[in-house]
Amino acid sequence: SNTIIVKATGTEYDEILQLCDDSNRMYIFARIKTGDDLSVRSKFVFICWIGERVSPLKKAKMSTDKAEVKKVIQNFAKEMLASEKSELSFSYIQSEVRKAGGANYGSAR
Fold this sequence. Notes:
The protein is an alpha+beta fold. The protein contains 3 helices and 3 strands; from the N terminus they run αββαβα. The chain has helices at about 15-20, 55-70, 90-100, and strands at about 25-35, 40-50, 80. A hairpin with a 4-residue loop joins β1 (about 25-35) and β2. The N and C termini lie far apart (about 40 Å).
């Protein structure tokens, strides 16, 4: 299909991992809490998931489709590309969003 649809929504980041497999591709928009002892902030991450077994043609189509998706999803702290589940671990994503956010004083929550 040439239609991009919302497949799922949720409140827990780990729910995303259940949807990602080697044969599919998707765009993920997630809220990640970052900050320090003085301030907790919510930042957004935009992830393009492309499973290892996705055909080359569909992989190529992701870039043109991404431009359309980004017309709707415009405000995010970090954009990432992932093709292995290890790249989707919450700790890794949170670390990347924290780095993109600049200064980090104290311990993060």
